Amino acid sequence: MQKTTKPPPAICVAAHHKSVRELMADNEFRALANQPGFLIELRLDFFNDLTDASLSRAMDQFAPNAVATFRHPAEGGMRKDVSDAERLHFLQLAVNRGASFVDIEARTPRDGFNKRAARLIVSHHEFSRPLSYDELRGIWLKQSSQGVADVIKVVSMPKSILDTVPVLRLLDELQNMPRASQVERISGAKVNLPTPLFLCMGEFGAWTRILAGRFGEPFTFARSENAPGTAPGQLTWREMDELYRFRAITETTPIYGVIGNPIAHSLSPLLHNTAFKEMQEDGVYVPFLVDCNPAEFVRAFGTILKGLSVTIPHKESALAACQHLDPSAKAIGAVNTLVRASESSAGLHPEWLGLNTDAPAAADALESALGSLSGKQILILGAGGAARAIAFGVKERGATVMLLNRTRERAQNLARDVGATVIADSDLAKVKIDAIVNATPVGMQPNVDASPLEESQIPPGVLVYDTVYNPQRTKLLELAEKRGCRTLEGVSMFIGQGVRQFERWTGKNAPREAMERAVLDELKKRRSQ
Ligand code: NAP
């Protein structure tokens, strides 16, 4: 990662404990308290044994890495019985005992409070709705002009990925505006210019947590490995640290990502972040839960992105986000990869090239098992997006393609586009087949006992390739083995498409082995859970 003069962003792990005693006995937090680059958020309103003495003991253990918070009940605080004055009393004590940050809601009067050497976070939480750009900017301007906050934290709840765009817009503006003119714009007077910390909760807001350092924000919140977070959408500190390398993200780190819906279980962030880590290449790859048209997403987020993967259900609709299309993606009618084709300049959005790396990745996998595909007879089960990419991919290398699909008409449409024949179940024993490729989701988690073909339908001796890779060993592959068939696991296509994406984006050879090892380890871990 590149070096900047700013301190690297920290990971603030939210303590979830019901008492000071419980927190102080927690080995995970004891270890984190002494680790550079980590902060511990002490939610004082959670503690049922909070007294001056217990808080002082906690501060002995956690200062100076403590962020002290006593949340107001109207902003999610647990103690309705405590007055503003009492809350302020405990926050003052935390500061006196060396807390490095103190978080106080904008609504709380701070009369008599002295932040001493701590940095003051003035916060605003909106738990049930997103904030518009004008609302967000209004909060920022109002708090900045008072000149007392070191950090202005605004947390909101998006209902769509598009609800997070105001946060992106304001962070981008603040980052690109010279500090001097920010001061002028704010009040015309010299003020203590704060740092933003704008977070969006839930899965739509994941990018705001992962990319905080990219926008110069001082830290992000994460959760313990052993407990749910203190706000929806918090990732574990280990995910932040090891998967996203949060502490190494700088304001110039290139950003890549994947768009899909759902996206939570995608292995693409693991695949690509492993590659960046292995190559010691500056870059972070972020999952975006995208519930809108991909073209709208790309228009809003394109200026900060270097490359994008596209997954279900956006592979076809993402064509509209591309100003340029690779000829084979055009023929397939679907893209899984967007490559930045031009830089953005003032007022202009960057242009994007759409590619399909699923097609060559599937053909590569089949070739590795069958040798040249020229003249080979390949039967594809399914006629959706994956079947389409595989059909074009193997056809381009000289294979003859047959299609078998639940909805015959859909198979006929694909057959017409790619130049293939459509067969029925009853033809299976009659036609010569070299390989069968499952391109349906049948057999995928959680329906692991399902197979698109019965054992008796599998012609003995053919190669059987299942593009389903979760589970790694599917029912279809088990049945094929019983019939004496060679088998090929779908993970090879997933790795192959990712390797090609990485190489297009970075212009460097991808570390295929490390990527494959990471994905196989994760699949194994998920199997045992
Ligand atoms: P899709 O566009 O939704 O197409 C699904 C296809 O499967 C359709 O042809 C559909 O038939 C058929 N199908 C669905 N449920 C079925 C059932 N219960 N019985 C029989 N046929 C059924 O999805 P896709 O994008 O093509 O993806 C399909 C699968 O490919 C994914 O689930 C994934 O496991 C796999 N895939 C793997 C990789 C990889 O890297 N290994 C990459 C992409 C996809 P109808 O036309 O009758 O609806």
Task: Give a written overview of the molecule.
It is a single chain. With 529 residues, the protein is α/β, with parallel strands linked by helices. The protein folds into 3 domains: 244 residues, TIM Barrel (Alpha-Beta Barrel), CATH 3.20.20; 107 residues, Rossmann fold, CATH 3.40.50; 132 residues, NAD(P)-binding Rossmann-like Domain (Rossmann fold, 3-Layer(aba) Sandwich), CATH 3.40.50.720. The chain is 35% helix and 18% strand. It has 18 helices and 20 strands. The protein has an 8-stranded parallel β-sheet. Strands 10-9-11-13-14-12 form a 6-stranded mixed β-sheet. α13 crosses α17. The chain is elongated. 47% of the residues are buried. The chain binds NADP nicotinamide-adenine-dinucleotide phosphate (NAP).
Q: What is the overall number of helices?
A: 18
Tell me the span between the first and last alpha carbons: 34 Å
CATH class term of the largest domain = Alpha Beta
For this structure, the quaternary state is single chain
- Structural class of the helices, strands and pairings? alpha/beta
**Widest beta sheet: strand line-up:** 7-6-5-4-3-2-1-8
Bound molecules: NADP nicotinamide-adenine-dinucleotide phosphate
Number of strands: 20
Main β sheet profile: 8 strands, parallel
Q: Indicate the low-confidence ranges by residue numbers.
A: none
Helix content: 25-40%
The CATH level-2 architecture of the largest domain is identified as Alpha-Beta Barrel
Mean pLDDT over all positions: 94
Q: Kindly report the CATH topology of the largest domain.
A: TIM Barrel
**Rounded Rg:** 27 Å
CATH superfamily of the largest domain: Aldolase class I
Tertiary shape: elongated
Strand content: 15-25%
What number of domains? Answer: 3
